[in-house]
Amino acid sequence: MSDTIKVGDFLVIKRQKYTKLQKFTSLDTTVHLGKDQIELRALENQPYHSTFQLVPKEGRNRRLYSLDPVTEIRNLKELLIKESGVDNRNIVDDRSTQNLSAEEIQKLREECESSSEIVGKLVENSKSFASKTEYSQEKYLKRKEKKYFEYVQIKRPSIRLIADIYWRLDVDKVMGVRFDTLSQIISYSGVCSVGNFLLYESGTNGLLPAAFLNSVGAGSSGRVVHLHPGNVAQKQALQAMDFPQEQLERCISVNIYSVLRHFHQSKQKESEKGVENGKEVVIAEGGDEENHKRKIESSEDDGPEAKQPKLEEVAKKPPQQWELDNAAACELMGGKFDALVIVAKEHPQNIIKALLPFVKPSRPVVVFSTTREILTECYMELKAAANVTYLRITSNWMRQYQILPNRTHPDVTMSANSGYLLTGYTIR
After folding, report:
1. Statement to judge: residues 226 and 363 lie in one domain
2. What pLDDT was estimated at residue 1?
3. Model pTM?
4. In what order do the strands lie in the sheet containing 275-276?
5. Domain presence at residue 206
6. How many domains does the chain have?
7. Residues with Cβ < 8 Å from 179, sequence gap 6 or more?
8. Structural domain harbouring 102
9. What element of type H or E holds 154?
10. How far is CA 344 from CA 94, 224, 409, in A?
11. Which residue among 149, 172, 189 closes a domain?
12. For the residues 277-288, what does the mean pLDDT come to?
């Protein structure tokens, strides 16, 4: 994995608290950050975590920028805060405190080369800035800096960054799985570099398999079988992580219905036995012997034409990739898994029944749902079946705090609940 940015890489573009996942497809790639359009040409061969300044392009479009690498970001607090007031009791928050009109501010944006110049002019023409407390001055500068901020940082994608980006864009993109919930799923299931792990998920944009594969790591003996309900697995997060090929091959993505059918049909064929008097006798499991015998005519009874091989048999088609994946997954299913994780949009009760036999004894089972009542039903069924012990339903709740000198408090707006987890350990 290269330490420098290459064409074809996925990038995380960070502008203050805003982050965006973008693929650097070619030198002509541009990205939209709000109303600004940014050319990414200058990123090639630059190290990750570098900071770049937005440089306006000449022409009519003042919202088009190129990137120029910088080593440091100007601190507006040190540049502009010279003196502060004791309190804000005499300050009236209205538009009359700013001497510049909207037209003059727009002209500043067109003429000034940097955001610090624009904010500096706004401070100079503010009647109340010097009278505000230092805390109020910092808030004012942060608000203006957010509007005119001219720096971006380029980061390498990570599970944490991708999870936060997907969560912020649309909670449904990750089925309500926030990063703290994801970390609990990984922790409860014990995913590591040793062992085989069974995962079913039905729509997290590849976040769950990417997190599993990240925990398994490269050059390990761990394997992940990723079951999904569709024809093609969602792998956006897997692609964005840019895992080595050897690590990617440790994750087998297969359709759950296809692989279960393949597995049970293979088991049925293995149970067929017996060759009697040159005629094959197929015996299925259970039932009356007469009802389970099927005689197939031997080659001795066939005519000369029947002995000639058919053209389709001579030139058989090579197995497709999904067939090879099914076979590889079935081989691991025969040896059973060290953990089962289910993150499903649909009710997981039947999925648990179908997959639980493939888990070794004394191994963790983790089921995620955004609805507590659904997990309560699964809890009662598993309790009655007595094949999973130490069953627990937990809610995932997180509070974010603003930590600043003399003003630590919870954020005003935050997401509290992030679904529920049903956990336990298999008995048999």
Report:
1. yes
2. 66
3. 0.79
4. 275-276, 279-281, 295-296
5. yes
6. 3
7. 159, 160, 163, 164, 167
8. 76-89+97-149
9. strand 151-155
10. 51, 17, 35
11. 149
12. 42
